[in-house]
Amino acid sequence: MELGEIARLVGECRKCGLHRNRKQAVPGVGNPRAKVVFVGEAPGYWEDQQGKPFVGRAGKLLDEVLTSAGIKREDVFITNVVKCRPPGNRRPSKEEMEACIPYLNMQLESIGPRVIVPLGAVAGETIARKYGLPWSGMFKENGVERKVVTILGEVTVIPAIHPAAVLRNPENKGMLVRAIEKLKEFI
Assign residue 42 a region: left if phi > 0, alpha if psi is -120 to 50, beta otherwise? Predict the structure, then answer.
């Protein structure tokens, strides 16, 4: 299925209560043939306003780190596990994540990336569960490369600390930078 069709389905989705409070759904943006896909947790305020992932402060930090690694945002695809903003930017519930995961799976199948970068614990746990990978927490998994074989071929999973976590604790920026630096060989 093409990404445009998946975005349309996301925009029409009523599988959980998050659709009632959203300004708009946030399916994802980027290169439909990206070698690298970033997966965050859920949209925040600015993402809900603009309908695009990672456009707020965390997105600006992600852009800065990508640029410093020589990676162009337009060369990657960026999405979230959950496609609508949870109230107060709370962690998405299990039910909300289960409602959206089929859309994430369709996106990954459509793009066929070589690398998936889960940003933060929620995305990391979700991707680890999807591929049967071990998960021992974001701080231990940050930058750890694991290869999985999928129906689309071999995919490398490289979890990275969420940029919002770096904004809360700037001393963690080095963790994000080190994880993103590993992507150079794939782009």
Answer: beta
